[in-house]
Amino acid sequence: MTDKIKHFLQFRDLSRGELEHLFERTRIIKERFKRYQPYHPLVDRTLAMIFEKSSTRTRLSFEAGMHQLGGAAIYLNTRDTQLGRGEPVEDAAEVISRMVDIVMIRTYEQEIIERFAAHSRVPVINGLTNEYHPCQILADIYTYIEHRGPIRGKTVAWIGDSNNMCNTWLQAAEMFDFNVHVSTPPGYEVEPERAGLYGTDHYEEFADPIEACRGAHLVTTDVWTSMGFEAENEARMKAFADWRVDAEMMAVAAGDAVFMHCLPAHRGEEVDAEVIDGPQSVVWDEAENRLHTQKALMEFLLLGHIREQT
Ligand code: CP
Ligand code: NVA
């Protein structure tokens, strides 16, 4: 029975058809929310959220989202639970998944969330690991579609660290058939195996970030130092100095290119203020769409395909 449970541990855990269904449900759920129409399909359902790293958007969007769907959310962190005192992740999964209906985890190695899911009776969602951030890319692609239409065949420029966000963009490119131009400093290149790629030709690496941005329809970046890598901060500040998204990079992108950043951002490090606060930036819509896409995700993982006319 356990192997029939659908988890969302990395982007490719859902099929393209399922992801397209999620985007359609997101549109409906978002419109309903904007009209102040209650929608409570998850009455009596409980989400456990386990955080081993900090969060603003992920916690808020899952907690508010579950409440808006009629259910309840419980916040757990490593410090205040037995997980922080060495209880095996497998034991925690056995227990937690007997008490709630769905679990979201933000942790370090992907392997931790996989071990949890293997011992869970309920769906598990990746709220960020060192390797992946699939919920963010759901929101990012939905935001692109809202602003510019289908992403198929488009070019995304990824500037900076080949981190969890970059890896997930690369998985999404395989799924939705778009291209990613990646530009990282030497020594920080994409590791295809760590990114979980099928070895396709959906990305190209550029030594020069300007060249990566040329003609791109979406330019995006992220912090130079991700959570868990703080010890490398000083070295990274030096290595990434030329990988700041600036007006020159946006100027060589497509005329209607948008700028995205998963946030939190550091103006003057990975992005200039005039870009993130400028007319091409869609970062606030991107952040808001975490709420709507994750509501569609929880609905799907708990209730399956919902068909309704709007
Ligand atoms: N983008 C994102 O996941 O933000 P938080 O770290 O605030 O959750
Ligand atoms: N790459 C960043 C994303 C934060 C939302 C990190 O892992 O810290």
Features:
310 residues; alpha/beta; Rossmann fold; 2 domains; 5-stranded parallel beta sheet; 4-stranded parallel beta sheet; binds phosphoric acid mono(formamide)ester; binds norvaline
Q: Could you name the ranges where pLDDT drops below 50 across 5 or more consecutive residues?
A: none
**What would you call the shape?**
globular
Oligomer: single chain
Count of distinct structural domains: 2
Q: Give me the secondary-structure category.
A: alpha/beta
Query: What name goes with the CATH superfamily of the largest domain?
Result: Aspartate/ornithine carbamoyltransferase
Fraction of residues in helices?
40-55%
Radius of gyration: 19 Å
Query: Largest sheet, order of strands side by side?
Result: 7-6-5-8-9
SSE run: HEHEHEHEHEHEHEHEHHEHH
Tell me the distance between the termini.
34 Å
Written overview of the protein:
It is a single chain. By secondary structure, this protein is an alpha/beta fold. It folds into 2 domains: 148 residues, Rossmann fold, CATH 3.40.50.1370; 152 residues, Aspartate/ornithine carbamoyltransferase (Rossmann fold). Helix content is 41%, strand content 13%. It is built from 12 helices and 9 strands. The strands form 2 sheets. A 5-stranded parallel beta sheet has the order 7-6-5-8-9. Strands 2-1-3-4 form a 4-stranded parallel beta sheet, sandwiched between helices. Strand 5, helix 6 and strand 6 form a beta-alpha-beta unit. Helix 2 packs across helix 12 and helix 5 crosses helix 12. The relative contact order is 0.16. The mean pLDDT is 97.
